[in-house]
Amino acid sequence: MKQNLGSSLASFGIKQAFSYLEGNPRKNMPQLIKWAEKFDWKGNYAKEIRGVKKSLSDPDNNWNILVNNFWNLDAGVRKKTFENFFMNGVFRARNKLDESRARYHCNVPWAILMDPTSACNLRCTGCWAADYGNKMNMSYETLDDIIRQGKELGTYFYIYSGGEPLIRKKDIIRLCEKHNDCMFLAFTNGTLIDEAFANEMLRIKNFIPAISLEGFEKETDSRRGEGTYKAVEKAMDILHDKKLLFGNSCTYTRTNTEIIGSEEYFDFMVSKGAMFAWFFTYMPVGVNAVPGLLATPEQRKFMYQQIRKFRKSKPLFTLDFWNDGEYVNGCIAGGRNFLHINANGDIEPCAFIHYSDSNIHEKTLLEAYQSPMFMQYKQNQPFSENMLRPCPLLDHEYKLAEMVDKTAAKSTDLEHPEDVHDLCAKTVHAARTWKPVADELWRQTPASN
Fold this sequence. Notes:
There is one protein chain. The protein has helices at 2-23, 25-39, 46-57, 62-70, 75-104, 129-132, 140-153, 169-178, 195-204, 217-224, 228-241, 257-260, 263-272, 297-310, 325-328, 365-369, 372-380, 399-405, 420-425, 428-443; strands spanning 111-114, 157-160, 183-188, 207-213, 247-252, 276-281, 317-320, 338-341, 347-348, 355-356, 410-411. It is α/β, with parallel strands linked by helices. Helix 1 packs antiparallel against helix 5 (75-104) and helix 2 (25-39) packs antiparallel against helix 3 (46-57).
């Protein structure tokens, strides 16, 4: 009771602070910082407050610019993002998730990643979705029920992938509209974003696209097909002109890492209006995967260093899903922070781990969270004391196979089922060669001490 009351009071205070900021962000932000210093009488957040104070005192500071860019968004989108992401996704969800985890003794995710369809209008080199075609789809009713179940346990953040999720754009809009207390994001190739869809985004206000790019025109079109880059540029321009929130999803491979990690590329994303960028390293998943696209240890280290460097100088919020393990205590999959449900309904630990012992058409979300496969994740996380080696597939030889062998999990690839040992064999060299590099980097981080 006291915990819920404290959370409610904190939520109310933050909501009031946001309303105060809306009046005049530049003028009122210093006063809010003074209030924060006054209320933090124990000094628990003194370091963070000093950092914010320093950043906002300099108009050229990248974080100051990013905050001001947020206030340049459409006012309705800005308000809805604050309410759904921060108020519901953080404060409201925190207690519900903690209660669910304690009550059911299993992982319960902060976010659910799900595929409305396996269909895609592109055929990108090395992508497993290209093999599936349009053979798998989850109905609107199934997607709706996943969100309903998720909210009951404390999940308010939903991410669409595929396939190309915007092939189902009408259903996605319906779901955003019905569950207007949730935040929705989609990993999309961006080619289906037009004026009409952007107007729908303005209407519902709780949908954010993360548009995939492989670099500039040469790199993007070489993997995604001729004309893709120009179509993506057009989509980004439409979103920016309508003051909508969006970002980029970037996969670095052996052929494009130096471009993805370049200052020119970061400046390009900022100039187009992106406010965030999520970085992934290529994973050789699927029978037609190309192991030769795996980034080298030197390239992965390069991305580790570049992203951290640009966090200090570019107004762009960035996440590196392999190299940021030190901030989230390693692997966040397996329901610890997120999971994946494919278009066939198979409930998987991760978008890159296509093995499952549960299907949404046969089990509830809670039953899946308590299944042997997900409990293997819970029992083994983190997979290393070195949080820069978070992944059971990419960073640890046959660790994924070991967990799958202890369960009844099967390959969820309906076209070409892949033995988990064969999949792990593709990443053995990467795991072995990354370990000494990661160990050296880890020794240099404050988190290791």
